[in-house]
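Fill in residues.
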């Protein structure tokens, strides 16, 4: 079954983030306005796609979308405002980049901080329901993955090229052996230590 192409007749921007559950690196959000009447059956939740397919669709989205934006919030900023607010901020930064003003925001998840005077709808599992949200999830994930691969060159002992900063056993073992870097979320430190004890 294909994802839905629209929620209403208004100009819609789909929004989603990547990296919320990570121990290191930024949280990244995408915002995408697809062309009216466009239908992209290959779009799906980025987590369900192969890496090769995600990057191919990334190029398609950037070429075909009416407008798109990518917002990044650093680990340091996450520590200052907490991960939930950082996720909202990343989405706001992505929306700031849109060259077309949307009339309605489709947000993946169940919470959102209002963006200016725009209406929004929160959709749980939205990246598996609406093409615009799926497109945003693909931009967010591919952008974040590329950043983590770049960071891996600086800190290869954490294996970020493979785990992308998520709390995998190898990542937690590396933290236990080498400690935290400036790219780790220090506000997650107590959670990290608890995870290491499991």
């Amino acid at each position: 079954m294909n994802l839905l192409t629209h929620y209403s007749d208004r100009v819609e921007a789909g929004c989603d983030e990547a990296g919320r559950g990570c121990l290191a690196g930024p949280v990244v959000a995408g915002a995408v306005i697809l062309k009216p009447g466009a239908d992209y059956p290959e779009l799906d939740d980025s987590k369900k796609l192969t890496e090769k397919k995600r990057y191919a669709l990334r190029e398609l989205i950037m070429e075909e979308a009416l407008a798109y934006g990518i917002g990044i919030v650093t680990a340091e900023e996450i520590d200052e405002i907490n991960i939930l607010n950082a996720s909202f901020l990343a989405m706001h930064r992505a929306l700031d980049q849109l060259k077309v003003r949307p009339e309605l925001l489709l947000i993946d998840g169940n919470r959102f901080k209002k963006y200016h005077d725009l209406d929004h709808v929160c959709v749980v599992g939205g990246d598996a329901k609406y093409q615009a949200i799926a497109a945003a999830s693909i931009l967010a994930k591919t952008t974040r993955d590329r950043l983590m691969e770049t960071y891996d060159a600086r800190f290869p002992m954490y294996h970020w090229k493979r785990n992308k900063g998520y709390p995998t056993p190898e990542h937690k073992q590396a933290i236990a052996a080498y400690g935290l870097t400036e790219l780790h979320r220090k506000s997650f430190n107590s959670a990290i230590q608890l995870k290491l004890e499991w």
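Residues 153 and 161 are 8 Å apart (CA to CA).
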